[in-house]
Amino acid sequence: MMKNGILLAMAMLLPAGYSAIQAQTYDLEWDVSLYGAGATEKTLPFWAVTNKNGMIPSTHSGLLVAGTDFKYGSKPGIDVYAGLKLSGSVVPGSLTDVAASPAIKGYGISPLQKTGTAWRGMVEELYVGVGWKMLRLDLGMIDRTQDYNGLSLTGGNIVWSGNSRNAPGYNLQVNYFEIPGTRGIFSIKANYADYKLVDDRYVDGAMLHNKSIYFKFKLHKRVHLQLGLEQWAMWGGVSPVYGPQPHSFKDYLRVVCGKSGGSDATESDQINVLGDHRGRELIQLDWTADAFTLSFAHDIPFEDGSGIRFKNFPDGVNTLNFSFHDRDKWVTDILYEFVYTKWQSGPHHDTSTDPDRQDEEWHILGGRDNYFNNGEYRSGWTYYGRTIGLPLITPKPVVSEDGLVLGVCNNRVVAHHIGIAGKFARKIPYRFKATYSKNFGQYVQSYADIFDSAPEQVSLALEVDVPRIFRKLPVSLSVGAYGDVGELYENNFGLVLRLTYSGEWFLRKQSPSL
Fold this sequence. Notes:
Layout: H1 2-13, E1 21-39, H2 46-49, E2 61-74, E3 78-94, E4 113-132, E5 135-141, E6 169-178, E7 186-196, E8 207-220, E9 223-235, E10 238-239, E11 243-244, H3 249-257, H4 267-271, E12 276-288, E13 292-302, H5 305-308, E14 316-324, E15 333-340, E16 350-351, E17 364-366, E18 382-383, E19 386-387, E20 394-395, E21 408-410, E22 413-424, E23 428-439, H6 448-451, E24 456-466, E25 475-486, E26 492-512
Antiparallel strand pairs: 1-2, 1-26, 2-3, 3-4, 4-5, 5-6, 6-7, 7-8, 8-9, 9-12, 10-11, 12-13, 13-14, 14-15, 15-22, 16-17, 18-19, 20-21, 22-23, 23-24, 24-25, 25-26
């Protein structure tokens, strides 16, 4: 009796939510997938490769992907994560896969064509992470979570869409947490990250800095307003013209704070800010009803101060998304997006006074923002030849033997996009996407022969997942049918088949905490 009384007293003295028996969980998921991709043209259609983390080659190919994710969790709220995903592809008749996908009419995928077969290995994910409550730190390369059930053009982020490969680095993030004393009305989330670009690019070895802050306001128990600001900066590296770029810790602080460069920076970086800066501003309104959630978001890009001051309005991606809470309906999600990036703060790069006059101060007011391009970091907002952000912004064709993609040639776009998802017969998941775009190139055209006529383009996708094709084996089949019709890309039809063998090992363990 006395022993039981002592144990009871000790349990009463422990903090709330803590027990004498502590639960631990071990969760291991793995999968192996075999892909086959082909099309009526040499390259695959737009949606066959878009927003796939740069994993699918732009040409006919076979692909083997194997991955595993591990999670360890303990009752005090500490979680440990780790993951690895490897892929190997065989591409007949092509040396490399560096061009934008699909190929712009008349330019092909690359001048680097050979007979024979190209093999390519790739590490898509390699990461470890640790989380505690709302806080998480990731190290390595990890896929970002895309919003809108894979239906969106951007996955919910106009600047970082999941269209290109993952870059190695770290990301410290805190999910939405309520500010004490606000009765749940006001919440904040944020992140702070740095990455290294390891592809072949104009400025070799450039680095990326990223940070963001988002605010959520509870206007009603069913209505939430989100406001966010996110910044990206490309800096450092070795330029073939200017040599090593400023890369000291003091220079890093300049990049973080958006300050101009020192005396060792280029003239442009001394006048403006050190490095190539861009980002986005987000306005999102969510209404949660009993049976569905309705969301509207205005995702605004910026390249300089004029964009931050909304001088580039109405540019951005406008998303209207309708999702049922019942995820087994014939139709579970309906999405519409309107994309407009033509204005770019105006057709002229205005200044407050004539810059040719040396007796007066002058500064840039903005205009010709030229999204995803930069004069010194000439590969622009691309990685391994693909646009990092909004995939409708088209990378330049590869026209040199070094295979470098030198920025984008089409960033003035007007587009309508719809996406529909659900389950056929309430059992078989599907996604349908249709995109119409009119492409105006740039204010100063890189490829006037293509974009002076503002080519129109329609791209379609239907993806179907069959969960279990064998009764006793955890094997699933995915079929994707894709098509391009229009004036920007070759008229094209393609198929991607994926056979996946997957499994999970889960263990819940009880252990004494004393």
